[in-house]
Amino acid sequence: MADLTVELCGVTLKNPVIPASGTFGFGREFDEIYDISCLGGVATKGIALTPWGGNPVPRIAESRGVILNAVGLQNPGVEKFIAEDLAWLKGKTRVIANVVGRTLEEYEGVCARLDGLVDFLELNISCPNVRCGGMAFGIRPENIEEVTSRAKAKCPHTPLIVKLSPNVESIARNAQAAERGGADALSLVNTFTGLAIDIERRRPILANNTGGVSGAGIKPIAVRMVYEAAHSVKIPVIGMGGITCAEDAVEFFMAGATAVQVGTQNFTDTRACPRIIAGLNEWCDAHKVERVADLTDTLQLNG
Ligand SMILES: Cc1cc2nc3c(=O)[nH]c(=O)nc-3n(C[C@H](O)[C@H](O)[C@H](O)COP(=O)(O)O)c2cc1C
Known about the structure:
This protein is of the alpha/beta class.
């Protein structure tokens, strides 16, 4: 049996496999299928200062190898999260609270409220920024640095992960901006903006028109971006995007990731995460890798 433990910002995870935000709720439904304490951690649904209702339906569209979603960050708000979901989840595994907001003050408020209560905070900076006319916080390096440093000032006791959007000009520059702002780690990728059309109606399938693309088909783009981000900063990186099996996770480790998150695959295979954990053990044994942590950043480029 290989050693699957990994260190992330001074916190030990029992293994590097974490269900991704928005694809696992707060874990309750999955805990009826398997014991979620086997996971390295759980990244919660995005949590705002007050409850958000989300977008009109349809919110999910399928396309070959990927899905599009425009759920609209529906969530119960931070107080209900603490009273009900965190109370249930705490102690089972590491809790990574995903934070959303439409203003800097909202991000600050959620981080301040959750500081010291969870193992990590993960800032979803793909939310529309009301101050920038709806453009996401996570597009321009100067906005990324600002939202990161303002959030970090409010959570001195909790490692802050900044989750990067892939819909950007330079993932390396944005990764560096988050690091300058005081991020303790990065996670990427969030979803790619896409459009799926119902050709009979000549209308978008999603009520929101566009949606975020995720799932198996995005993996090579995500691996490239994780490689670029990991090689432009000193802080650790959590990789995700299209992971369906242990071998996919190994690619992300080799590209520079310390841990991985599994998203859309939880919908097609509700046991995806424990299967990937078991698969990592087998892969490491078959390749005589004693510690999964030794795989991180071992890619050697050609030429
Ligand atoms: C239905 C759905 C909801 C999501 N909600 C969130 C969210 O609340 N916060 C966030 O940071 N990412 C959210 N994501 C993005 C995922 O966490 C992940 O970054 C993305 O789906 C890529 O990974 P995957 O290809 O394994 O799904 C959501 C993705 C999906 C499919």
